[in-house]
Amino acid sequence: MIKLIQRRCWILVGLIALQFSKLSYASIEAKLLDNSFVILQYHHVANDTPAVTSVTDEQFIQHLDLIEQLDMNVVDLADAIDKVRSGEPLPDKSVAITFDDGYKNIANQALPELVKRGWPATVFVNPGLLTQSPSYYLTWPELKHWSKQKITIANHGWLHDYWVRENAQNNHQWQQKIKQSITDTEQAIIQHIGYSRKLVAYPYGEYDTWLQNWLREQKLIAFGQQSGGVAGFSDFTALPRFPASGIYANEKTLTTKLLSRVLPVDYTQLPSPIVSTDNNPPSLSFKLLFDKTNQLNCFIGGKAEMVMEKLADNRFQIKANQSLDKGRSRYNCTMQSKEAGRFYWLSQSWLIED
Q1: Of residues 172 and 65, more confidently modeled
Q2: Which 8-state DSSP code applies to residue 133?
Q3: How far apart are CA 49 and CA 136, in angstroms?
Q4: For residue 124, is pLDDT > 80?
Q5: Which residues are in the NodB homology domain (predicted)?
Q6: 212: left (phi > 0), else alpha (psi -120 to 50), else beta?
Q7: Are residues 54 and 179 in the same domain?
Q8: Is the peptide bond before 91 cis (omega within 30 degrees of 0)?
Q9: Are residues 59 and 151 in the same domain?
């Protein structure tokens, strides 16, 4: 009788644990539904600019129509971040739209079309470049005009130069130069626009730990060019954006990205993207914040060229099976959510040093 009671107790404990696991997963998914969003990144919107960083006017309109067809909610970038950080709910399927560099061609059709639809957007600018080439970049008076129509003007550094490719980890003079570039841009935005939302986009999407730490001290939010979404457990000095230009303009793949979810890990614990030759290929480890781990897939360059090891306590370690090429690379991990056609997504940027 005692053994029978013990057995039933263990069965009950197991059922409770299983139910708790389900509730834990469900509660995290519910939180993601209420408090996350994705960001699109554009550069040129024109028919005669470099294809790799461009969409045509027609493609851009098609993207906006797609957003509408998917019943997406276009949100102001800074406002959405404030809500995510405070835990205030966002509508499901929220998306923010951004443009890097402030090219003049985005004012031909892209910005007017957004204004026509009543949708906000953010334009990251380089003050040094727009002053040097006013025929190529939006000028301060033009940016001021758009800023009055739900278009936020934000920081892309004084010049579109590399911020972390000069052995900056140990070069105090170089670090000071980059910090001054960011500070000067903030001051220029305040001077010409009247305010700053304290948003910074990394040129080329490249960053390092020393820069993240300084941006955090300055209470600046920073954005890369890796894939994924934004949630409360994101690293707000390395927020992802989905590129939507060039080969990424395809509507089918863009639909998957627009509907994606944030893979729940602690993004503040992810490693620096800078990788020395001695540590190539780099290793990435993370812990999933829920128990649904059996459908995780990781890849690089669209191919499953990865070694993935599942460790204890929902931890994973992944590594490419050969050295990465010099320059920028990414590891991507995805996992099917409970909703058909919607995937969790994580992307880790790497910058392989010479």
Answers
A1: 65
A2: -
A3: 11
A4: yes
A5: 93-319
A6: alpha
A7: yes
A8: no
A9: yes
Q: How many angstroms separate the CA atoms of 301 and 296, rounded?
A: 17
Count of beta carbons in the 10 Å neighbourhood of residue 292: 20
Q: Do 215 and 305 share a domain, yes or no?
A: no
Report if residue 244 sits inside a domain.
yes
Distance of alpha carbon 121 from alpha carbon 289, whole angstroms: 31
201 Cβ contact partners less than 8 Å away, ≥ 6 residues apart: 98, 100, 124, 154, 155, 156, 222, 223
Domain boundary among 238, 260, 282: 260
Question: Could you tell me how many helices (H) and strands (E) the chain has, helices first?
Answer: 9, 19
11: CB partners within 8 A, 6+ apart: none
Q: How far apart are CA 141 and CA 344, in angstroms?
A: 41
Regarding predicted confidence, which is higher, 164 or 220? 220
pLDDT for the residue 31:
60
Average pLDDT of the residues of the chain:
90
Percent of the chain with pLDDT over 90: 77
Band of pLDDT at residue 290, cut at 50, 70 and 90: confident
- The type of residue at 97 is I
Within 8 A by CB and 6+ apart from 57, the residues are 45, 46, 47, 108, 109, 110
pTM value? 0.90
- Residue type at 96? A
Please tell me the predicted confidence (pLDDT) of residue 167.
62
Residue 81 token pair: 């971040």
Token reading at 142: 């033009």
pLDDT in the model for residue 284: 96
Query: For position 95, which CATH number holds?
Result: 3.20.20.370
Q: Is pLDDT above 60 for 10?
A: no
pLDDT for residue 26 is more than 60? no
Query: Can you tell me the distance from the alpha carbon of 263 to that of 346, in angstroms, rounded to the nearest whole number?
Result: 6
Kindly report the CATH number assigned to the domain that includes residue 346.
2.60.40
Does residue 266 fall inside a structural domain? no
Per mean pLDDT, which range of 16-30, 81-95, 272-286 is the poorest? 16-30
Note whether 60 and 149 are same-domain residues: yes
Verify that 61 and 192 share a domain, yes or no: yes
